Amino acid sequence: MDLKKIFLKDACPTKMGGQAVMEGIMMKGEKKTALAVRLPDGTIRVDTQITKTYGKWMKIPLVRGVIAFADSLVYGTKTLMRSAEMLEEGDDEEYEPTRFEAWAENKFGSKGLWNIMLYTSVVLALAFSIGVFIILPTGAVNLMKHFTDSVFWLNFVEGVLRIAMFVAYVWAVSFMPDIRRVFQYHGAEHKTIHCFENGLDLAPENARQFPTLHPRCGTSFLMFVFIIAFACHFLLGWPSLALRIITRLLLLPVIAGLSYELLKWAGRSDNIVVKILSLPGLYLQKITTKEPDDSMLEVAIAGVNACMDELPVGSWQIAPGDDHLTEWIPKTEDEAEAETDPDPETETETENAQADEPREKE
Q1: Regarding predicted confidence, which is higher, 205 or 122?
Q2: 246-287 residue pLDDT tens
Q3: Rounded to 5, what percent of the chain is helix, strand, coil?
Q4: Contact 207, 195 (CB under 8 A)
Q5: Measured between alpha carbons, how far is 227 from 260 in angstroms, rounded to an integer?
Q6: 77 versus 332: which is more confidently predicted?
Q7: Strand, coil or helix: what is 311?
Q8: What CA–CA distance (Å, rounded) separates 69 from 344?
Q9: Virtual torsion, Cα 107, 112, 115, 121, nearest 10 deg
């Protein structure tokens, strides 16, 4: 792995971050957030909204990491659902809701049903993650007590097993065709942000030259979470199974906060310590990012451009082979206000934990 191609010397870190979604990219800028999706007919649909902010809370170390983690979980799920919805809207084939869907929409309303689906998805994702990556590893290693009572080795094996299970899970799902395309869009997101931070014109031929790996990636954040958890759990000894599960859950906010601060540091520094700490996450990105094609880079570029333009929040479509708006649908004032934080003194902080400071040199 050539780290010089990832920690680029002339790059200027920005507050631009993103997330790959179904057939598209979500890009989050300092003022606006854009969701760009390639529709079945080849057009690019772009929706923009005011970037949600959390004010002075985002200035408090550790606390801001917990907020960013919770926000990325909820907003990330919401964005995935919205991208799937946009693809359905762009499909010529009419969708017939089931009897249950029709009843639920009539009972709760469209917005109420959407919120129920959103938070149900978040709860199920949390339950799956906690069950598979927290309860299962510590429960399985509990069987080792028949062979050793060493606190060190019990915690060590649990940590290694947890990381191995996570990497195996990511590797296994990467073979699914739909997930592979999401990983290609993930690579397009990183290439485009590299291109943007190096001051080049946003065009597929310029973005193509950059790597699919990026030091501020959310994948690296997750790897930091697993590594910091690995270290923290040693401090708790090896109590009963129930107490281990409880303490590991209670530690999650602390671990998320520490991981966030580490990711911020990695985003603005290129010294040797940062490079070494970033290696596990970068190697995992070799699974979660794939080489995109030019059509995917076009979608990512459309997302970045939408975050920077001066047009009001709204929606538009870009025709295949075109690079300008072909249809503009402004949002109403009520819609724009609903997506704006009421605190005028708030500051924007993206889910990828970027910073404005210049890079520290070795």
Answers
A1: 205
A2: 999 999 899 988 888 888 777 666 678 777 878 888 899 999
A3: 60, 10, 30
A4: yes
A5: 13
A6: 77
A7: coil
A8: 23
A9: 0
Domain range enclosing 88: 3-338
Number of structural domains in the chain: 1
**For residue 322, which of 288, 297, 298 has the smallest C-alpha distance?**
298
Residue 295 lies in a domain: yes
In the numeric block, the tokens 């540091």 are attached to 265
- Which residue's entry shows tokens 């520094």? 269
Can you tell me which residue has the tokens 């090896």?
238
Separation of alpha carbons 272 and 270, rounded Å? 7
Residue 57 covered by a domain = yes
In a domain, 344, yes or no: no
> Residue 343 pLDDT more than 70?
no
Residue at token pair 């300008």: 324
Examine residue 331 and state whether it is found in any structural domain, yes or no. yes
Reference 182, options 194, 170, 169; nearest CA is 170
Nearest in space to 347 (alpha carbons), one of 73, 34, 59: 59
In the numeric block, the tokens 């790996």 are attached to 213
Nearest alpha carbon to residue 48 among 32, 25, 30, 70: 32
Query: Confidence band (pLDDT; 50, 70, 90) for 55?
Result: confident
